[in-house]
């Protein structure tokens, strides 16, 4: 049976608090927020007081290409490097932190900065000579085309019997 916390209200009457929350209970017992700790593991917070910038990617396959989209707000084209070596696509770069003046007063500082690198293994059949990259409105779009021989071909369904041609008698 769950241990539900009970509080005495004014006049000595018993009042139940909201539903029992195991994460709230853990935080109370341990004095820390487990999600905050996990966030620090993934973002690198706590190391030199900065968060590491890790862009998010979306990868999809179409009939003739692989499309990669990455959210790179505040990253300039000159700070992005894209390489394709064999079947390995690597996107790396950096987002520079803004200069902070001593006289400025921050109430929160949550934006992350720094270098990043993401690598993807592509399946066989990509065309390394047909890769296009575009950075527009903070979104990097990469289009890695497939070779024509690996693109799907539409096959029409016929009657199943070959057509007979009449021979011309000479």
From TrEMBL:
A Pfam family reported for this protein in Swiss-Prot or TrEMBL: HSP20
Which parts of the sequence belong to the SHSP domain? 48-160
Against SUPFAM superfamilies, the record matches this protein to:
HSP20-like chaperones
Q: Which UniProt keywords apply?
A: Stress response
Task: Outline the segment boundaries, as ranges, of region: Disordered.
Answer: 151-170
Q: Keyword Phosphoprotein, does the record have it?
A: no
Keyword match Methyltransferase: no
Q: Which InterPro entries match?
A: A-crystallin/Hsp20_dom, HSP20-like_chaperone, Small_HSP
Task: List the Gene3D superfamilies hit by this protein, alphabetically.
Answer: 2.60.40.790
The UniProt entry, under PROSITE patterns, shows: SHSP
Q: Please, which domain of life does this record's source organism belong to?
A: Bacteria
Q: Family assignment?
A: Belongs to the small heat shock protein (HSP20) family.
Q: What protein am I looking at?
A: Heat shock protein, HSP20 family protein
């Amino acid at each position: 049976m769950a241990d539900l916390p009970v509080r005495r209200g004014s006049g000595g009457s018993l009042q139940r608090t909201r539903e029992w929350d195991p994460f709230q209970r853990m935080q109370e017992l341990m004095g820390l927020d487990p999600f905050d700790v996990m966030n620090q593991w993934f973002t690198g917070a706590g190391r030199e007081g900065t968060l590491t910038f890790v862009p998010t990617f979306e990868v999809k396959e179409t009939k003739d290409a692989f499309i990669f989209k990455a959210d790179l707000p505040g990253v300039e084209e000159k700070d992005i490097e894209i390489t394709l070596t064999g079947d390995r696509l690597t996107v790396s770069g950096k987002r520079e932190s803004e200069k902070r003046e001593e006289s400025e007063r921050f109430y929160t500082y949550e934006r992350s900065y720094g270098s990043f690198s993401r690598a993807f293994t592509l399946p066989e059949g990509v065309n390394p000579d047909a890769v296009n990259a575009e950075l527009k409105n903070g979104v990097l779009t990469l289009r890695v085309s497939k070779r024509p021989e690996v693109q799907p071909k539409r096959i029409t369904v016929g009657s199943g019997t070959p057509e007979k041609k009449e021979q011309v008698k000479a």
